[in-house]
Amino acid sequence: MRIVNMGEWPLDTEDERRHEPGGEPLWNESWYYDFVAADGSLGGYVRLGLYPAWGRAWYWACVVERDGGRMAVIDHQAPLPGSEDLAVAGDGYTASHETTDPFKSVRVRLASEELSLDLEWRTAGGVYGYAITPRYEVPCEVTGTVGGTPFHGYGERDHSWGVRDWWSISWLWSSGRMEDGVFVHGMRPNVGVELEWPAFQVPDGGELAHVAGFSATTEFDGDRPARSVLRFPGSATTVRPVAFAPVTLTSPDGTVAEFPRAMCRFTAEDGRTGWGWTEWHQPPGWREHVWDPGNRV
C-alpha cells in the first residue's frame, strides 16, 4: 500500500490512533467517513470531532437521497470517548468508529431512532498525507448496511489533529469517484495566497499520486453553492450539489459559522461522470475572503 506524505512529519500506522491533545482552546482531533452509492442514489457522511479543552465531542451523521430524502443525527454535546473504538453516545443514539486494520480498514456503526449504519471503509489506492496540516485522506470502497439495507459504494475517510478555527477561515474540500473508477480529491483554504494545495488522483486499480497545480472556482446562488469547477493540470471537473446535508457551528462565545456540505454529481470535460461529496465552509465574513481567484461572488 502506497503512502504519499506531503508533510514533514513521519506519517505511519500509529497515526490511526488518537493523538496527545495540545493545550490550545481550538485544538481538535477529527475523523470523517464519506460514502456514496455508485449510482448516486444515496450517500452520507459521519464526523467525530474531539475538543478536549471544551470537555466534549461533536458527532454528526447524515444520510441523503438523490430524490430529496434526508436523515441526520447531530450532537454538539457528546461526551469525549474513553475507548479505542471511539465510542460515543447521546440522546437516542450510540456510535463507534473502529480501526480494524491500520490504513487498510475501518468500521463505523450507528444505532439511533432516526438512522442506523454499519459500514466498512477499505482502502483503495493508498493514503495521502497533507503538507500544510497534520491530516491524511484515504480513498475507499465502502460496504455494509444503511438502515438495515445492503450498501455498496465508494468514499473517502480522513483523520486530522491540531488547531482548527471554524470561525475564521473559509475553504473548499471535494472528493469523488468517476464512473471509470478514478478517484479525485482537491482542497484549498481561502487564505489570500496561492500555495501547493492538497490534491490527488487514483486510477482504477492503481496507486494514489499527488497532483500539482490544483485550483477551484465556485459560483453561488445567494449563500448556497451552485457549482464548483475543480481544475487539475490538463483537465477540469464540474461539481454540482444534488442533496445538501448542512451543519451550523456555534463557538463557545456564540459566533456562528455555516457548513454547507452536499452529495454532488461530478462531470469531467471528457463526459465522464461520478459522485462524491463537497463542502464550502462559511465562517463570519466569508464573502470578504478570496474564495476563487477571478470568480469572486
In brief, what are we looking at here?
It holds the Pfam family DUF7064. InterPro entries: DUF7064, DUF7065. Strands 1, 2, 3, 4, 5, 6, 7, 8, 9, 10, 11 and 12 form a twelve-stranded mixed sheet that branches.
Structural class: mainly beta
- Give the total of beta strands: 23
The unreliable regions are 293-297
**Strand-and-helix sequence, N→C?**
EEEEEEEEEEEEEEEEEEEEEEE
State the helicity in percent bands. Answer: under 10%
CATH class: Mainly Beta
Strand content: over 45%
How many separate domains?
A: 1
The separation of the N and C termini measures 41 Å
Per DSSP, the total helix count is 0
CATH fold-level assignment: AttH-like fold
Radius of gyration: 18 Å
CATH superfamily descriptor:
AttH-like domain
Give average pLDDT, whole number: 94
Largest sheet: 12 strands, mixed
3D shape? globular
The CATH architecture term is: Beta Barrel
Domain DUF7065: 13-164
Organism: Nonomuraea aridisoli
Protein name: DUF2804 domain-containing protein
Domain DUF7064: 166-284
Secondary structure layout plus pairing:
Blueprint: E1 3-5, E2 27-37, E3 42-51, E4 56-65, E5 70-78, E6 88-90, E7 93-101, E8 105-112, E9 116-123, E10 127-129, E11 135-146, E12 149-163, E13 171-178, E14 183-189, E15 199-202, E16 209-210, E17 215-221, E18 224-232, E19 235-244, E20 247-250, E21 256-259, E22 261-268, E23 273-281
Parallel strand pairs: 1-10
Antiparallel strand pairs: 2-3, 2-12, 3-4, 4-5, 6-7, 7-8, 8-9, 9-11, 10-11, 11-12, 13-14, 13-23, 14-15, 15-16, 17-18, 18-19, 19-22, 20-21, 22-23
